[in-house]
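Pilot study result, target chain (467 residues):
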Amino acid sequence: MSAGQRIAIIGGGLSGLATAHALQRRDPSLEIDVFEESDVVGGKIQTAKIDGFVCEQGAAGFLDREPATLELCQRLALSPLSADERSEKRFIYNDGRLHQVEMHPLKFLRSKLLPFSAKTRLMIEPFVRRKRGDEDESIAQFARRRIGKHAAEILIDAMQSGIYAGDPERLSVRACFPRVVEVERDYGSLIRGMIKLKRQRADGDTPGAGPSGHLTSFAQGLTHLPTRLAEGLARPVRTRSSVESIRRLAPDQYQIALRGKAPCAADSVILACPADRAAELVAGLDQQMPDLLGQISYAPLCVVCLGYRRDKVRHPLDGFGFLAPKRAKLDILGALFTSSIFPGRAPEGHVLLRVMIGGARAAEIAERDDNEVIEIARRAMSRIVGAEGRPAMQQLFRWPRAIPQYELGHIERVEQLEEHAARHPRLYITGNAFRGIGINDCTKNADLLAARVASELSDPIVRQAAR
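Predicted structure:
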């Protein structure tokens, strides 16, 4: 039985909180302590309310396609808020202007987003041979091979920037977009596969080839998800608790050393913190794990929220926002028309824009001082959507290590990491640095990990091995 078992979870972000919640549901007798070094829970899910504007500092929302997240919201008595229908319209900035991304094939072919030669190359994608062998391929390599150089530089580069803020020449397509690789493998063509999947989705629940679903949040902001998770735990989250090290006291017990506080003992330890912090904490337990964790890099990101009077912005803001590929030569990655996506994000008569700056290929820009970064955002919004004058509200949120980069070899790296972690009974590693960066990935992986931990705690063979 697992009664009285003490579990220490290092990290009070979504992964740590959702794992604690899932474990508590499975076995209320577990003694679960969540340690968070900052004074608030949620990690990069934080909402700021400034002068009537609701600003998401990190994640903007989640897609409503994952049952685990929706079921979690239901258990927490949270009412998801779906994006406005206007947000179905998406734009890409290229050749000095915004182009609507048309989803209908005929409208797409008539649009000026891609040159005629790129459209022609895209049309022959069904006849391109599928890749042979298991060698890892970058997003850029995969896209050029399947849809051609121009479409890769415009469409795929913009899409990955909006998700990973990464370098497509270095990111692994298998790790970042596994479903796309599966579609090529199963159907021989992305276009042919998407057509068949669309027909199947009309009859059931078959997932599509890429990101799908409607962006979802909550009326008062996304931060209500981690806050409600923390409030529902039997033991309060131990904020302002910086873990300095983890060491094994006995074959079946760990000691958690805390800065300025008495150490704690635990039967199981779950590391739900960023990869670099996890590397520091396991340094005294394993020689290889710190190096493997250290190979997972992060892209820096600045989020600039700009609030304007509606009559000071010429663009109708009738859409989700826009992304900018590298070839557009902007100093920003893109922007969301936040007040057009969710109601109540701006005071009456005002609009809210959210500008993303930095990423793996523009880390230097994200490191500039606050005033310069805000000015970059303002100039871009003036140029692209006609935002005039000084904003009614402007706020910068800085994330030096924002988004994990799933670079080439990531899947093998994670597999090696899990092999080493398995040598230390009841030591687990989770978080968005490993098997999915989004909110849906975190909630789904939390359920899977909780099931695994509960199973191993109740398995007498595993319990004996720990001794």
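One observation from the pilot: The chain has 18 helices and 19 strands. A full batch analysis is planned for the follow-on phase.
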